[in-house]
């Protein structure tokens, strides 16, 4: 009997060895499957996040191009108002004779019929003879002495553009989008007209059109006007200079998830400042949502397959 028991034990031990190897193989397959599932979920989330971010950058680029185009429209409106004033008979004569009443009678209706909130009539030396403002516009200054644009307009009065141009000017009351042109009697400039809109108002109007927040920066990278709820951080000076010089668009994050694209601001066909266009970046949230749904899908698939496998295994045992 002892010999028979020994012979019975030996085959039993030989049958357990393949079963142990089988379990080890299953655990290895399970670990590999789990690793592949995790990698697949992470890859799906990254792809979704990258796609949303690419779409956001495309929207920022389109908003920047739309902003520049809309700025040309504002420039054309101000130039139209400027021409209406400078070509109205009697305005230049009233300036030459220092007749504020005549200037008021001629200029105020023209300003009221335009979309321009601020008009200044200035002597060549910068003294303000007359100023008219729409409701809510900044108060006028008594003098614009030292403003280089006035001297440039007078010098170029007989040039190909008649001394008329547009630029961004920073006054004590804030930055403004200014279109300037001379008042002529014969070949002599007797005064200068400044047709102006606060830069913050210009950006606010364009922001509604392009559906993005806009910020204007100086050549030193300092924000001077914005439609955002808070001023964005100062831009590096070298980066600002490079952008104005025609460098590639720069992207950065401001105020948490707000992504900003920066390029040069073209005014009157010349780079005059840096323009920032910003939108909220929702790509991380999208990536996490896709990872969650992918994980739930994998879990559901594994649960269904495990249920079928368990049923098949039970049938085989029976």
Please outline the helices and strands.
Elements: H1 2-86, H2 91-96, H3 100-112, E1 118-122, E2 128-133, H4 148-155, E3 165-171, E4 174-185, E5 188-198, H5 199-210, E6 213-217, E7 223-226, H6 237-244, E8 250-254, E9 258-267, E10 270-280, H7 283-317
Antiparallel strand pairs: 1-2, 1-5, 3-4, 4-5, 6-7, 6-10, 8-9, 9-10
pLDDT average, as an integer?
Answer: 86
**Number of DSSP-assigned strands:** 10
* Radius of gyration using CA atoms only: 36 Å
Write down the overall geometry.
Answer: rod-shaped
Summing up helix and strand content along with how strands pair, one would put the structural category as: alpha+beta
CATH architecture of the domain at 76-200: 2-Layer Sandwich
Give the CATH level 1 class of the domain at 76-200.
Answer: Alpha Beta
The order of strands across the largest sheet is 2-1-5-4-3
Distance N terminus to C terminus? 33 Å
Structure description:
The protein has 318 residues and is α+β, with helices and mostly antiparallel strands. The chain has a domain at 76-200: 2-Layer Sandwich (Beta-Lactamase). Helices cover 53% and strands 24% of the residues. The protein is built from 7 helices and 10 strands. Strands 2-1-5-4-3 form a 5-stranded antiparallel sheet. It has a 5-stranded antiparallel sheet with strand order 7-6-10-9-8. Strand 8 and strand 9 (258-267) form a beta hairpin. Residues 1-9 and 11-15 have low confidence and may be disordered.
